[in-house]
Design brief:
Elements lengths: L3 E6 L7 H10 L5 E6 L4 H9 L2 E7 L6 H16 L3 E4 L3 H14 L3 E11 L1 E8 L4 E6 L6 E5 L16 E3 L31 E5 L10 H10 L2 E4 L1 H5 L20 E5 L5 H4 L7 E6 L12 E4 L2 H14 L1
Parallel strand pairs: 1-2, 1-4, 2-3, 3-9, 4-8, 5-8, 10-11, 10-12, 12-13, 13-14
Antiparallel strand pairs: 5-6, 6-7
The protein binds flavin-adenine dinucleotide.
Flavin-adenine dinucleotide (FAD) binds next to helix 6, helix 7, strand 13 and helix 8.
Length: 316
Amino acid sequence: MTTTWVFSEESDGHAPASALELLTKARTFGDAAVFHIGAGSGEAFAELGEHGAAQIFHLSIDDHLPAAAAAAALASLLDEHGGEIVLFGMGNTDRDVAGRLSARIGRPVLANAVEISIDGSVSVTSEILGGVEAVVTETTGPAPALVIVRPKAFPAEPSGGATPPVSEVSMPDVGRSGSAVIVESHVEASEGPDLEAASIVVSGGRGVGSQDKWSVIEDLASQLGAAVGATRAVIDAGWVPARLQVGQTGKTIKPDVYIAAGVSGAMQHLVGMKDSGTIIAINKDPDAPIFSVADLGIIGDLHQVVPKVTEALQAR
Ligand SMILES: Cc1cc2nc3c(=O)[nH]c(=O)nc-3n(C[C@H](O)[C@H](O)[C@H](O)COP(=O)(O)OP(=O)(O)OC[C@H]3O[C@@H](n4cnc5c(N)ncnc54)[C@H](O)[C@@H]3O)c2cc1C
């Protein structure tokens, strides 16, 4: 019997980072099977195998809206093969499929997980109150447990495995729920390193002052080869696009170095970056909560401090 299932939605011919992270954890429980939706590229299958997938079940979704069919197909696979736990990432499709699967098989979903253990029953640690408190929930009742895991809860580590056997899954009939198709999709253009993958991130908060002063953040990021991040206050003000938001309702990141300029350090922001390697905060308020997680703090006006750092880097 398969112990663990991992949900995976192909992105640009690759396995998503979430599936590779979840597989790294899943393989510690025993055999890990992947339910993979999308085009089904050889590269994606190889990446899944390299991270410990013992078997892949592939549903080619074509241009259909994926969640209804994916949930129905996954429910049938669980019925046929069993499974103790099904792991999902925090992506839109992941959460949509988890909810639909929950309704189909009558099992609850445990969300926001940062740790999982299986010892007779499945126990899940979740962060609440913006990461300030941890709650451990032990599942009772019949398997499987459905768990949505926070990004970067487990670092993706290759196990060196080969591409596992791939079984094609036929498209289930889900009636009218399956009739919606995607007619157009749009990939937002972006420059510079990817926020979630960058080893250095420079984030700006409302303390930057206005959109026309935002270049102070971009200039430093560009000198460091860093990605740019932002607080929700900055997103809400319309200074930068929403994909740059770090925090509870934005991205969870763990760069080696996180520089926060003009960021107060609200708990909803901290939950997205507090596990970064070295945190450097620049804020004119010595009591700003960001200093409670900072390894290095500079109390001062960011418009004086940051350009000096940028200039010093330029001069090197
Ligand atoms: C449900 C929910 C979800 C949320 N999700 C998120 C999330 O995902 N991410 C997120 O970031 N927030 C989130 N928030 C919002 C969060 O609570 C804060 O409001 C937000 O993070 C504050 O952003 P900020 O630090 O940029 O602004 P502020 O709190 O206004 O802080 C600005 C800081 O800049 C400093 N400053 C001002 N001028 C200067 C200067 N010249 N030089 C140096 N320092 C200066 C000030 O001292 C202050 O500390 C969420 C809130 C809710 C309710």
